[in-house]
Design a protein that fits this description.
Structural class: alpha+beta
Largest sheet: 3 strands, mixed
Shape: elongated
Number of strands: 5
Helix content: 40-55%
Length: about 210
Amino acid sequence: MPTEPEPMTPPQRQTAPSHGTPGSAPPSGPQKHSAPSEGADDNRTTETGGDPPVAVGGNHSSEEPDQSTAEQLDELRDRWRRALADLDNLRKRQAKELARVRADERVRTAAALLPVLDNLELALAHAGSDPSAVLKGVEAVRDQAVDVLRGLGYPRDAETGVPFDPARHEVVGVLDDLGAEPNTVTEVVRPGYGSGAEQLRPASVVVSKRQE
């Protein structure tokens, strides 16, 4: 009689081992895991060079430093704006004060010159009746004008026989005068007014030259 074929056994599914390389047999027996030695965490912290983690409280926010810096910047900007405003106001006040002082000085100078003009007009008015009075009137007006300039801080400089001083005199001529000392003012062509830092103009003079 024909024999019946034997039933075939289905192939078993092979599962990959959980440990080791594929195809390697799993280690026999239970695996023993060694407990971490005491102080391992300390050694690990020391090796990495960092500090151990510190718990941060719930009341502190990481945005507090940024807010503090922003507040300081706002305060500095506010101070800077106020300083600029104060400087601008001071500059405007100084400009107004300077303009006022200049106006006062112009008024004072013009008021001092008014009597000089009045006397000059009187001298011209009497020129027809008494010609000799014109000369006296002009001399009086000249003296009055000199007094006005002296009062303003510019005294008249018209001395002769004094040594030549380049700070006071301006040479317009040289004269060979045997009766005068060398380098001496012998004639004043145009008087000067003021002296030193407040000199209005130097005197134009003729100087005697050095005798050889």
